[in-house]
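pasting Acylglycerol kinase, mitochondrial for the record, 423 residues
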Amino acid sequence: MAKVLAALRSHWKKSTFGACLLGWGGHWLYGKHCDNLLRRAACQEAQAFGNQLIPATMPLKKATVFLNPAACKGKAGNLFEKNAAPILHLSGLDVTVVKTDYEGQAKKLLELMENTDLIIIAGGDGTVQEVITGLLRRADEAAFSKIPIGFIPLGKTCTLSHTLYPESTNQVQHITNATLAILKGETVPLDVLQIKGEKEQPVFAVSGLRWGSYRDAGVKVSKYWYLGPLKTKAAHFFSTFKEWPQKHQAALMYLGPTERPPEEPEEKPSRPPLYVRLYRRLRSYWSSPKGGLEFPQEVAPEDWEEVKLSTTELSIATRNRHLDLTRTEDFMDICIEAESVSKGQFVHRGSQKMRDPHMCPEGSQCIQASRCILQLPEGTEGSFGIDNEEYEAMPVEVKLLPRKLRFFCDPRMREQLLQAAVQ
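structre below
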């Protein structure tokens, strides 16, 4: 023992390095063990759903998974196979996995998709945006938009995770919780933005649209990877070397919020008997003026308002991030940020916007609208960020589609939303 201690003391540098390596290896193995326990517990919970008896005449529910293997720097495929796929297969669902090979493929595949009971999106914000765009471009979108959608967060940016699932620092737990939420069946309605250019087909978004200097600087952060934790500040700092202040000028026309209609019941009432329908029609005929002739009611003209803007950044966002199930009006948030911002404020706010892209800083003009038209000057260059996907900047019309899609969510999140509404 004395010889061992003497050897360690005489080679203290190697001993210290070995102890650090041993400690790191132990911590890594312990983390892997904890991840396996989480997977096992999730699979046991999923198996309880799979063991439920169903009538012999009832077919299995079909689930179509759109998986983007390139998400999360190419790790999404492995993450799905290890953490989500076993849960889905044990649940008793008839699972079909569709892997996308290139950008935009999901939109085309949605046009060919046959009937399914569930749609599951496995990827990041880009995959979500592609799938809902393909879904809502279909000729029969009115029927297909009623299919519930599950989201398994596998991408680098997963904005919907903050709305649908509890926060978790453990990636395995986050993925298994999201997959189990699909089996539990709780859903929440989410708003969708329809963004249409002059010639292009409409694009749909669940988060929003960004146009401005913060977005342009944010997409360049990865170029400064060698600066480690300083890469975000560096990207925004170097962008201030361009023409300053960076102004984005446009004209904005918008309509105010609309009143939310009562939510339709999930089960439609049964059709009344024939004699009841005949009686109602005759009563409606004789009670109408001038022998049943109905005159069209005058439709009030839409009250458009116009704003000339010169801003550092413009964002148009849904209320999905701050979901309120009991609000009485439907609207999207338009944030026009002040053009007078110092370089120091620009760098500081840029770091904040990397965490919350649609935050509206103090001093900005905030507008609530149900529909808007953004007119850009001729020769305007740059790009829009639509759900963190890049599109060429052009004049667009943005229309809110309230409660258009239903997404599966963790029951705990839904309970929190209902409790917040009561308070």
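The CA atoms of residues 175 and 378 lie 45 Å apart.
The first strand starts at residue 62 and ends at 67.
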